[in-house]
Amino acid sequence: MSLQLSIWIIIGLTFALYIGIAIWSKTNSTSEFYIAGKGVNPIANGMATAADWMSAASFISMAGIISFVGYDGSVYLMGWTGGYVLLALLLAPYLRKFGKFTVPDFIGDRYYSNTARTVAIFCALVVSFTYVAGQMRGVGIVFSRYLEVDINNGVFTGMGIVLFYAILGGMKGITYTQVAQYCVLIFAFMVPAIFISIQMTGNPIPQFGFGSETQDGVYLLDKLNELHKELGFSEYTSGKKSKIDVFFITAALMIGTAGLPHVIVRFFTVKKVSDARKSAGWALLFIAILYTTAPAIAVFARTNLIETVSEKNYSDMPSWFKKWEETELLKFNDKNNDGIIQYLEDEKLNELTIDKDIMVMANPEIAQLPNWVIALLAAGALAAALSTAAGLLLVISSSISHDLIKKIISPKLVRKKILKEDISEKGELIAARISAFFAVLLAGYFGINPPDFVAATVALAFGLAAASFFPAIVLGIFYKRMNKEGAISGMIIGITSMLFYMLKFKFGWFGGGDQTNWFFGVSPEGFGTIAMMLNFAVSILVSNFTKEPPNEIKKLVENLRTPDE
Amino acid sequence: MKEKNKLYWKRNLSYLIVLLSIWFVVSFGFGILFVDQLNLIEFYGFKLGFWFAQQGSIYTFVILIFIYIYLMNKLDKEFKS
């Protein structure tokens, strides 16, 4: 069977599955639409969370990035998993116990203030939009690379399918499609990894494989370090980033993970508080399968690549080399005209430029695996992008229909006697579907016309989440004295300082600046940690100089701290 | 009742402190701050610091959450009866 045909068949099958699940899980109530009627099994929720969490970037780009930066890539590995410990221990059980629909719900009620609610809605929208645009773009890119479809048509297809199951099934539909998407993506990720591990080290478990010996009896990592030294690259297992920056970036990614609304909201969908804890455990276990395999793939791919290309004749290159050259993800420029590929750290002498995404996508071809494995990889990348996009769209739509319309605008209109009564559940459900529709359109628009800032801001979305939500939620649970004045000023200071730092050093606003001007040598990616500390400090300080929260709020907090009935 | 709830919360907090300390030491300690020292130790073909940063910390995270689930389920049972 030709490659194109197998890709069409596998993608077609997975899409049919997602649509089937959407029809089966049609929703009729707001509770089902927002939080799947609180009826999701914790293991299923763990899978859904894992799929929701792992985006196109985790699936396609992460192993490639690690492959190029070695030890420095640890910031992503630890940062994007360690946050789940914070979620499971500090947030998920209490938020589930609180038992509403959204994160702004908690902020608005706990801080007895619609101002706090509005600030939370704003933060949720900023974080989610920066993130979702990248996903839609990812869908388009996968289509165009594997199927030679125009990127825009790829984005339209992705929009259509997400629209269908998000609008029809809401959270319930999204949850069960995400379960299916997790299975597709993890299978697609593991199959080539296992094959390559066997080929290179004889060990079928990639996690052990990259610590094994190769056929010549040298440890794989020692061999890679040696190759790096010969070619002038820095040692693979050591990296280049400063220690302080690695520390702060890891912390920002961890805390940001724990503050992302589309992840938090997944813990509202289970029956009991104990199920919320269990879900977090399962979610991290499912995520860890991919995240511990990625660094192994990185080492295999890196070694394979160097051994295949370095100091070899260009005319002897295998067919995958030519194929990826056509996509321009791989470029060879024979500077000294000797017909031999020099792949070196020194930019003046280096003749080969490699896009990081190749490392995962070309893996099956490099390892000479059958066509269906390549097709599977395409379906897995789509599953990763679609599941994340759907989760984000739900946060956007519920922020508008529930937090903004139901909780703020509708009561205001009733008070002003413009409306006779509060919006009905039916009305809210219609509003939710309409806002989901517009959110998809907007995400699609950014997918087709990606603003320059998208790529730069996806990593920064974590900084924004860390700087805004995390302190407000944690203090809301663990610090009874915390009042609305403190929370509001903390969130505002946190998110504006993060935005300021990001705009200054990433986009050259406010006079710009470079690495030498960084605050204590911390990059914009790591600044989320500092903005978060600022938020904590301001929140506590302001709340101690202003009025205590009312008694019923203290009771609410006390109730969060008791065992579940 | 109130005393009982206070005790429940205190026990929960003590679990959090212990588990989060391990969380911090394994990732920020072994994986970042002391990575160079640990890298001098050879561990099944890995440099130990590198292994903690890219493998060991993640395994520990998973184990920590499941320990917390176990402890809290036990605590819930104890305080419900």
Could you explain how this protein is built, in words?
The complex is a heterodimer of chains A (565) and B (81). In chain A, 73% of the residues lie in helices and 1% in strands. The longest helix of chain A is centred in the first third of the chain and has 51 residues, at 151-201. The mean pLDDT of chain A is 87. Chain A is mostly helical and 565 residues long. Chain B contains 3 helices and 2 strands; from the N terminus they run ααββα. In chain B, 85% of the residues lie in helices and 5% in strands. In chain B, helix 1 (2-33) packs antiparallel against helix 3 (48-80). With 81 residues, chain B is mostly helical.
Topology:
The complex is a heterodimer of chains A (565) and B (81).
Chain A: H1 3-24, H2 30-35, H3 42-53, H4 56-69, H5 74-98, H6 103-110, H7 114-147, H8 151-201, H9 206-209, H10 220-231, H11 243-259, H12 261-264, H13 273-309, H14 319-326, E1 330-332, E2 352-354, H15 358-361, H16 363-366, H17 371-415, H18 425-448, H19 453-478, H20 484-507, H21 524-545, H22 551-560
Antiparallel strand pairs in A: 1-2
Helix pairs in contact in A: 1-8, 1-17, 3-8, 3-13, 3-17, 4-13, 4-17, 5-11, 5-13, 6-7, 7-8, 7-17, 7-18, 7-19, 7-20, 8-13, 8-17, 8-18, 10-13, 11-19, 11-21, 17-18, 19-20, 19-21, 20-21
Chain B: H1 2-33, H2 35-38, E1 42-43, E2 46-47, H3 48-80
Antiparallel strand pairs in B: 1-2
Q: How many angstroms separate the termini of chain A?
A: 57 Å
Unreliable runs of chain A = none
Would you report the number of β strands of chain B?
Answer: 2
Q: What would you report as the Rg of chain B, rounded to the nearest angstrom?
A: 17 Å
Structural category of chain B: mainly alpha
- Our estimate of the beta-strand percent of chain A is under 5%
Strand percentage of chain B lies at under 5%
Number of helices of chain A: 22
Strand order within the widest sheet of chain A? 1-2
Radius of gyration of chain A: 24 Å
Average predicted local confidence, pLDDT of chain A: 87
Number of helices of chain B: 3
Helix content of chain A: over 70%
Main sheet: strand order of chain B = 1-2
Major sheet attributes of chain B: 2 strands, antiparallel
Helix-residue proportion of chain B = over 70%
